[in-house]
Amino acid sequence: MRAPDDRTLSSLAGADRLLVCCDFDGTLSHLVDDPGAARPVPGAVEVLDRLGALPETAAAVLSGRSLEALRAVSGLPPHVTAIGSHGVEFDAGEIEGLEAGERELLARVGATCEAIVAPVPGATVETKPASVAVHVRRADPEAGADVLAAVRSGPAAWSGVHVTTGKDVIELAVVVVGKGRALSALRAGARATATLFMGDDVTDEDAFRVLETGDVGVKVGAGESLAQWRVPDPDAVVTVLAELAGRRADMLRTRVD
Q1: Do 52 and 98 form a contact (C-beta atoms < 8 A)?
Q2: Average pLDDT, the chain
Q3: Residues catalogued as catalytic
Q4: pTM
């Protein structure tokens, strides 16, 4: 696979209503050991802001991070919609609240995961509004693998728990979540006639899966993917977005003229 070609970018640029949506970590920012140290690569925020400010164009960032954590590291402007926790948290609020039983299950999952990671330096637990994520990127690889195995055989196997795996992370949710569901909601809200989604992780495949005819998926980095196109890194993502933004602006000016 290669980067979107001229015909593909022109088709997107000419859409009646365009949605541009990207993952954050590994897509708009390079992957780092300390999640709090991640920052968008140069030009990423600016080009999304430019796209989101265009008529009949929506820009969004869809991340596995909590919405609070995403806002803290991304610096996204008002023109760009932020969605966290794989689609549970939108700028306007959560998709759905938790019932009492779900809140109890979430607390039990969190406590069990905390006990699993406690003896392992570098392994951490992140609690989100409807899920718990166990991260092992900073742990010793062998110890991290043991942590993930313990989570899979423990709370991940409980009734009512929905599991998502990514790079050095396993996430346990107490409601059905997924980037595909969130992207579909974004597309419906924007009344988009064409969508571009760019992502690097296993969790982004859920979004690629719901793309329709005329939509475009771009995988960032190595690995198997449902996406039709591929770019090597976040800097290349900015290049694609900048080219699309320029073409989109030109197309819209032509319509007005």
Answers
A1: no
A2: 92
A3: 23
A4: 0.78
- DSSP per residue over the chain, as a string? --S--HHHHHHHHT-SSEEEEE-SBTTTB---SSGGG--BPTTHHHHHHHHHHSTTEEEEEE-SS-HHHHHHHH---TTEEEEEGGGTEETTEESSPPPHHHHHHHHHHHHHHHHHHTTSTT-EEEE-SSEEEEE-TTS-HHHHHHHHHHHHHTGGGSTT-EEEEETTEEEEESS---HHHHHHHHHHHHT-SEEEEEE-SGGGHHHHHT--TT-EEEEESSS--S-SEEESSHHHHHHHHHHHHHHHHHHHHHHH-
- From CA 94, how far away is CA 124, in angstroms rounded? 24
Report the relative pairing of strands 162-166 and 131-135 from DSSP bridges: unpaired
- Least Cα distance to 171 among 181, 161, 180, 179 occurs for 161
Instruction: Say if strands 80-84 and 216-220 run parallel, antiparallel, or are unpaired.
Output: unpaired
d(C-alpha 87, C-alpha 183), whole Å = 8
pLDDT in tens, 237-251: 999 999 999 999 999
Smallest CA-to-CA distance from 195 within 204, 207, 206, 181 is with 207
How far, in Å, CA of 222 to CA of 200, rounded? 8
Quote the Cα angle for 113-115-121, to 5°.
Answer: 95
Task: Compute the distance between CA of residue 177 and CA of residue 174 in angstroms, rounded to an integer.
Answer: 9
Specify whether the CB–CB gap between 61 and 23 falls below 8 A. Answer: yes
